[in-house]
């Protein structure tokens, strides 16, 4: 079955380090998204992509970057991790029926 | 950007019907209304989507009045496993417009009691 996976599921890092979170989907969807969810809050859009080599900033993109070199993957990079970026990160992909499929999430702690 | 407003929390009992209403006064013509369910430590899961009137699937119904300024998710005969956070999302996921709509509100925390 097609799926969307994220790795790692848990990550602890230090302030100032570069961190990359992986997202891989086998739905063959062109559209992929990254969200962050802070405790007790809804999801906020970080970056999104409509296809290979396309990336766009979302609501809370400062301090994050993405690249899209193929259809299946949209890695999220924190260039210099900050404590404010401690959060749960969700990747999602979307088909033409307006339904988003979410990954299981990555819990990131920045010390 | 369509902003949504939902109740923060609701309580119900097993076997009851639960209705969760979402307000979206500035919904645009091309916007769809989508509801997601999220369990702790999991990503949101699609429940149902609609544009107008009523939509029903195997797990829920979605009622949308003619003015489309609100919508109601109806969960028939809830069970303990329906305890979750429910998000209403309004927008148009068509090409070149996805970023404008992908804002989740705070969601409604549904607690189903025995």
Kindly describe this structure.
The complex is a heterodimer of chains A (111) and B (114). Chain A is built from no helices and eleven strands. Chain A has 111 residues and is an all-beta fold. In chain A, strands 2, 4, 5, 6, 9, 10 and 11 form a seven-stranded mixed β-sheet that branches. A four-stranded antiparallel β-sheet of chain A has the order 1-3-8-7, with no helix packed on it. In chain A, strand 9 (87-94) and strand 10 form a beta hairpin. Chain B has 114 residues and is an all-beta fold. In chain B, a hairpin with a 5-residue loop joins strand 6 and strand 7. Classes of the chains: A mainly beta (111), B mainly beta (114). Chain A binds chain B through residues 31, 33, 35, 41-45, 48, 50, 56-59, 90, 92, 94, 97-105, and chain B through 32, 34, 36, 41-46, 49, 87, 93, 95-96, 98-99, 102-107.
Pairing-aware structural class of the strands and helices of chain B?
A: mainly beta
Number of helices of chain A: 0
State the end-to-end distance of chain A.
Answer: 37 Å
What structural class should be given to the helix and strand makeup of chain A?
A: mainly beta
Biggest β-sheet strands, sense, barrel of chain B: 5 strands, mixed
Q: What is the number of beta strands of chain A?
A: 11
Through-space gap between termini of chain B: 39 Å
- Major sheet size, sense and barrel closure of chain A: 7 strands, mixed
Q: What is the overall silhouette of chain B?
A: globular
Radius of gyration of chain A: 13 Å
> Which pair of chains forms the biggest interface, and how many residues does each contribute?
A-B, 26 and 22 residues
Radius of gyration of chain B: 14 Å
Instruction: Tell me the strand percentage band of chain A.
Output: over 45%
Number of β-strand runs of chain B? 9
């Amino acid at each position: 079955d097609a799926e969307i996976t994220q790795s790692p599921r848990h990550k602890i890092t230090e302030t100032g380090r570069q961190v990359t979170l992986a997202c891989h989907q086998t739905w063959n969807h062109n559209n992929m998204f990254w969200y962050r969810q802070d405790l007790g809050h809804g999801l906020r859009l970080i970056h999104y992509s409509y296809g290979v080599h396309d990336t766009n900033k979302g609501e809370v993109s400062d301090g994050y970057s993405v690249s899209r070199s193929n259809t299946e993957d949209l890695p999220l990079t924190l260039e210099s991790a900050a404590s404010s970026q401690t959060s749960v990160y969700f990747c999602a992909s979307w088909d033409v029926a307006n339904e988003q499929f979410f990954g299981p999430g990555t819990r990131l702690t920045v010390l | 950007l369509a902003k949504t407003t939902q109740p923060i929390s609701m309580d119900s009992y097993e076997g009851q019907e639960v209705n969760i209403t979402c307000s979206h006064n500035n919904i645009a013509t091309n916007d769809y209304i989508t509801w997601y369910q999220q369990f702790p430590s999991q990503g949101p899961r699609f429940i149902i989507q609609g544009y107008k009137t009523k939509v029903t699937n195997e797990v829920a119904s979605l009622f949308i009045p003619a003015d489309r300024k609100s919508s109601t998710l109806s969960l028939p005969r809830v069970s303990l496993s329906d305890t979750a956070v429910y998000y209403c999302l309004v927008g148009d996921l068509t090409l070149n417009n996805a970023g404008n709509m992908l804002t989740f509100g705070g969601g409604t925390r549904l607690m189903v009691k025995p």
